[in-house]
Automatic annotation (TrEMBL):
PANTHER family: COLICIN I RECEPTOR-RELATED, TONB-DEPENDENT OUTER MEMBRANE RECEPTOR. It is found in: Cell outer membrane. GO terms for cellular component: cell outer membrane. This is TonB-dependent receptor plug domain-containing protein. One of its GO terms (molecular function) is siderophore uptake transmembrane transporter activity.
């Protein structure tokens, strides 16, 4: 009986140690190629703005954070929605914006309101913009 109790306690301790360990995974991307691969090997330009970077600068909205990426230009779109169109290296409409891994907006568009646009209120809890 004592052996069973000791082994149950030991298993409990081992599992609690395994649970408390943090494991950092390598970054990988699926969207550019259709299969998982390292960001460095992806056949597209991929920029990730980390949570640390978002907190280190006084961004008011997602558009300001994206505008800081080299090679990215924002310009106001037509209409009254207050949205911005994104161009990367002069190419419009082919920019995919992911916030915490979820697709945002329609091809290359970021704005404060409206369907398929990114809300400014989403900025504080974001862990990354890709």
């Amino acid at each position: 009986m004592k052996k069973i109790c000791l082994s149950v306690c030991a298993i409990g301790l081992l599992s609690s140690n395994a649970i408390s360990q943090n494991v950092e995974l390598d970054s990988s991307i699926v969207s550019a190629s259709g299969f998982t691969q390292d960001i460095k090997e992806a056949p597209a330009t991929i920029n990730v703005i980390s949570k640390k970077e978002l907190q280190s600068k006084p961004y008011r909205d997602v558009a300001e954070a994206i505008a800081d990426i080299p090679g990215v230009d924002l310009y106001a779109s037509k209409g009254k929605t207050g949205s911005y169109n994104i161009t990367m290296r002069g190419i419009t409409g082919y920019t995919l914006v992911l916030i915490d891994g979820r697709r945002q907006g329609i091809g290359g568009e970021v704005g404060p309101n409206g369907f398929n646009e990114i809300s400014n209120s989403l900025l504080p809890p974001i862990s990354s913009i890709e």
